[in-house]
Design brief:
β4 and β5 form a beta hairpin. The radius of gyration is 26 Å and the shape is elongated. The chain is α+β, with helices and mostly antiparallel strands. About 11% of the residues have low confidence. Strands 1, 4, 5, 7, 8 and 9 form a six-stranded mixed beta sheet that branches. It starts with 9 loop residues before the first helix and ends in a 5-residue tail after the last strand. The protein has two domains: 110 residues; 89 residues, Immunoglobulin-like.
Length: 217
């Protein structure tokens, strides 16, 4: 499988070393890349373990523990004959084939990355409410479902490219008159909203919804 070009940025993102356009491009990508979903989960677990447990996880085990583990393993191994061990191995192989043969068919939900005790998640869904269909006139506002308190939303409006962006802590924002004046009949637009935590971490993103201002009949 061809390596995703964004894979090399996973650690930098989890360690908050990406900024500006690089960070935004990565966030846009991993919400839509199933492979990066999985790799982000794996890398986040490792990084979280290092942050939580510290350097002691790399320390060698005491000799006393090794002396106890070896006789225990030998005792367990002696309970089965070679033929019984062969049966156990065959059953395990069948189970692995069943698990790995079925699981890839299911597309995982966006992952949740817990970076600290106070920082919650990335990967939630954000629902846009209005406008979501073609309109007769330029809309006066954009509205979406609230994700609760202490959330900042960033709205982006597109035509052939980005034509307006704004931030708010409400789940509704009015469109400035100078922007509405340029939204003429027959044009197609798209809008999208991202939600950020109080620490500036992306916690949710909407799909990009398209609408058109219908020409007068």
């Amino acid at each position: 499988m061809k390596k995703c070009p964004f894979e090399s940025q996973i650690d930098d993102y989890l360690l908050n070393r990406l900024e500006g356009g690089d960070k935004e491009a990565f966030e846009e990508h991993y919400f839509n890349c199933q492979r990066c979903f999985r790799l982000m989960e794996e890398r986040n677990e490792l990084i979280s373990a290092v942050k939580t447990r510290g350097a002691w996880i790399f320390e060698p085990e005491p000799d006393a523990e090794k002396k106890v583990l070896l006789p225990t393993f030998e005792k367990v191994f002696s309970y089965f004959t070679p033929r019984q061990w062969a049966t156990v191995a065959a059953a395990a192989a069948v189970l692995l084939v069943a698990v790995f043969g079925v699981l890839p068919r299911f597309k995982g939900a966006p992952p949740q990355f817990v970076l600290s005790e106070s920082e919650v998640v990335r990967g939630a869904s954000l629902t846009l409410m209005s406008p979501v269909i073609d309109t007769a006139v330029a809309p006066a506002y954009f509205e979406w479902k609230s994700l609760g308190e202490d959330v900042e939303y960033k709205l982006s409006l597109y035509n052939s490219g980005l034509i307006w962006t704004a931030t708010t802590r409400e789940n509704r924002i009015s469109i400035p008159e100078e922007i509405r004046a340029n939204m003429t009949a027959g044009q197609k637009f798209a809008w999208q909203v991202r939600a950020y935590s109080s620490r500036g971490t992306l916690i949710a993103v909407s799909s990009r919804v398209e609408f058109q201002i219908k020409p007068a009949e």
